[in-house]
Design goal:
The complex is a heterodimer. Chain A is of the alpha/beta class. Chain A contains 11 helices and 10 strands. In chain A, helix 5 (103-115) links the parallel strand 3 (96-98) and strand 4 (120-125). Chain B: InterPro entries: Alpha-ketoacid_DH_E1_comp, DH_E1, THDP-binding.
């Protein structure tokens, strides 16, 4: 129909058209088939969507735009069907970046993005389309943006992640309890930009130990931003240096995926380092 | 006579000093100059018109489709018959059908969970074989992902194809990419990447390098009608045309970009109608007629290398199979449509031609079917047994050398594996080795 439709194959076109729709007064939800293919649209997102309100002195904005796109490892996606590009977008003032960890979160967060008066990029971890099964209310509900969620409380170590990684961290927390007798607080960041540093810092003040994990590459991954902020705000509360467990600084490989991802065993090693420091 | 010459000289001097253009008329020795008001803009210099009318694309008939052989395998235009010898035609047929066999088996293997992903070439084999057979073996190929027949023509072996799909120790790509992302330095086929149309402006650049090197080679760039909507396609065409690059842009218009039909992809007359907009020589061809594809590619190559200018070929064809193993095309097209287009498939058409020539019969067909299937299964069985490459390949080739931070990460994985060996499928991989 004219509400949900195919477009010609052009990511720069899809996003720009979406910006235009929003400026023209319509709610626009632009879909990029895989986050790996979002880069032709990066100019429109960073130079146009993000700066629309600011550069016009608030005369114009494209807040009615939401971009949604599947991201993350899926077991066999390799270089171009596995990427987690949230760090590139976290570097753009003017947009919001949101990542759900399951169906219930997805609905509430997506509706918030759509209704939020700022352009939003919504990354959907594709492995969770089939991998996560939950009860989702049919009624309308939203979940707040820029609010991290403490998914599991704990006292000894703070574990921070988003998307698929939250499930890995919950698994690690279980193993840490069983094998190390450590109780871990697991936090789902949910919104990458603007991010909720208060919740993270509050937890670190309690535990004194922080591990951040993400599939995206180590260097300049979003864990770097979190680590920089936390060491600045909570320096004297830290019992050990902040641990980052991330993808290696390589393109996402195909057959080597089992060695590449920041799985529960690498996260467990990270917790041991925090605790034994 | 002198007076007439003087008159001509005066006219010539007049022409060089006045800004308006002059049309010289008359063939007699006395040359007259009629002042014609012509547009003097830097962007375009054609003619003025005093009639207000818009160019209406719907009024133009579509660019015609060049064809040589009809659906029954008969040469419709004898003068266009390339008269390819029997040996070459048999190779064309065998390559198309071997590709077909390989596609069937590898598609099935994905369904069985043996390989992670696959894309078939059903229906488009003639676009590969027809074009590849008209090029020189060293012409550089930039493909999209549905051009395996080009590799097959050039000699990529079944082992090489299937090893890449398995990402095993024999994969020239070292296990890094999804299946069908082939590449071969020896066969001058640049390794495939998934993003669409990114190869197109690269092809323009490579062609420019060849021009400067004066090596007599051209570049061919394959892409689909969907990829032609990408911004990179525009850059590719415009750069190639303005910088005089010897590149053949070969569009496989197969009717679909996954589920997006051409009616949603463009409103004009396909991709061919865009060519002259960029200043490129353009032709549209029946992509299911292997001889027609061969003829146009051969001619296009000649134009490229002789005149250093790009050529656009739009090969009309139909994607018989699904987009990939991740697609179920029955969700967006009727089975009847596929069946209808399959009756015009390029393999059947070439076979009809061969039979009419007395070069092929049912017995040979059955024999070859069995043999090709057997060949594929043999390669398949070997590939499946091979291990994956040693895990240090994960860290190599990011740069030419391994930088210190990456070396540290490799060391940390080594240490991690030594403490957690039972948690990883290391038995399926070659042993860790940093050499």
């Amino acid at each position: 129909g004219d509400r949900v439709f195919n477009s010609p194959l052009s990511e720069q076109g899809i996003v720009a058209f979406g910006i235009g729709l929003a400026v023209g007064g319509a709610t626009a939800i632009a879909e990029i088939q895989f986050a790996d293919y979002i880069f032709p649209a990066f100019d429109q997102i960073t130079n146009e969507a993000a700066k629309f309100r600011y550069r016009s002195g608030n005369l114009f904005d494209c807040g009615k735009l939401t971009i949604r796109t599947p991201c993350g490892a899926v077991g066999h996606g390799a270089l171009y069907h596995s990427q987690s590009p949230e760090a590139f977008f976290a570097h753009i003032p003017g947009i919001k970046v949101v990542i759900p960890r399951g169906p219930y979160q997805a609905k509430g967060l997506l509706l918030s993005c759509i209704r939020d008066p700022n352009p939003c990029v919504f990354f959907e971890p594709k492995i969770l389309y089939r991998g996560a099964i939950e009860e989702v209310p049919t009624k309308d509900y939203t979940l707040p943006l820029s609010q991290a969620e403490v998914v599991q409380e704990g006292n000894d170590v703070t574990l921070v992640g988003w998307g698929t990684q939250v499930h890995v961290l919950l698994e690690v927390a279980k193993i840490a309890q069983e094998k190390l007798g450590m109780s871990c607080e697991v936090i789902d960041l949910r919104t990458i930009l603007p991010w909720d540093s208060d919740t993270i810092c509050k937890s670190v003040v309690k535990t004194g130990r922080l591990l951040v994990a993400h599939e995206a590459t180590h260097t300049m991954g979003f864990a770097a931003e979190i680590a920089a902020t936390v060491q600045s705000e909570c320096f004297l509360n830290l019992e050990s240096p902040i641990e980052r467990v991330c993808g290696y600084d390589t393109p996402f490989p195909h057959v080597f995926e089992p060695f590449y991802i920041p799985d529960q065993w690498k996260c467990l090693e990270g917790i041991k380092k925090l605790v034994n420091y | 006579m002198a007076a007439k010459l003087g008159g001509a000289l005066r006219t010539l001097r007049y022409l060089t000093t006045r800004p308006v253009s002059c049309r010289l008329i008359g063939t007699s020795p006395s040359v007259r100059c009629v002042h014609e008001d012509r547009p003097q803009f830097p962007g375009s210099k054609s003619k003025f018109t005093y009639k207000l009318s818009f160019l209406d694309p719907d009024e133009e008939a579509g660019i015609p489709v060049y064809r040589v052989m009809n659906s029954e395998g008969e040469m419709t235009e004898k003068s266009e018959d390339p008269k390819i010898d029997k040996t070459t035609v048999l190779k064309m047929y065998r390559d198309m059908t071997l590709l077909n066999s390989m596609d069937k088996i590898l598609y099935e293997s994905q369904r069985q969970g043996r390989i992670s992903f696959y894309m078939t070439n059903f229906g488009e084999e003639a676009t590969h074989i027809g074009s590849a057979s008209a090029l020189h073996p060293e012409d550089m190929v930039f493909g999209q992902y549905r051009e395996a027949g080009v590799l097959m023509w050039r000699g990529f072996t079944l082992d090489q194809f299937i090893n890449q799909c398995y990402g095993n120790t024999e994969d020239v790509g070292k296990g890094r990419q999804m299946p069908v992302h082939y590449g071969s330095q020896d066969l001058h086929f640049v390794t495939i990447s998934s993003p669409l149309a990114t190869q197109m402006p690269q092809a323009s650049g490579a062609a420019y390098a060849f021009k400067r090197a004066q090596n007599g080679k051209c570049v061919i760039c394959y892409f689909g009608e969907g990829a032609a909507s990408e911004g990179d396609a525009h850059a590719a065409f415009n750069f190639a045309a303005t910088l005089d690059c010897p590149v053949i842009f070969f569009c496989r218009n197969n009717g679909y970009a996954i589920s997006t039909p051409t009616s949603d992809q463009y409103r004009g007359d396909g991709i061919a109608s865009r060519g002259s907009g960029y200043g490129m020589l353009t032709i549209r061809v029946d992509g299911n007629d292997v001889f027609a594809v061969h003829n146009v590619t051969k001619e296009a190559r000649e134009i490229c290398v002789s005149h250093n200018r790009p050529v656009l070929i739009e090969a009309m064809t139909y994607r018989i199979g699904h987009h990939s193993t991740s697609d179920d095309s029955s969700m967006y097209r009727k089975k009847g449509e596929v069946v209808k287009f399959d009756t015009n498939n390029p393999i059947g058409r070439l076979r009809s031609y061969m039979v009419k020539q007395g070069w092929w019969n049912d017995d040979q067909e059955n024999e070859w079917k069995e043999e090709s299937k057997k060949m594929v299964m043999e390669s398949f069985a070997k590939a499946e047994k091979r291990k994956k490459p040693n895990p240090t390949e994960l860290f190599k080739d990011v740069y030419e050398e391994i930088p210190p931070h990456l070396q540290k990460q490799m060391d940390s994985l080594k240490e991690h594996l030594s403490k957690n060996e039972d948690k990883y499928p290391t038995q399926n991989y070659e042993a860790w080795s940093e050499h």
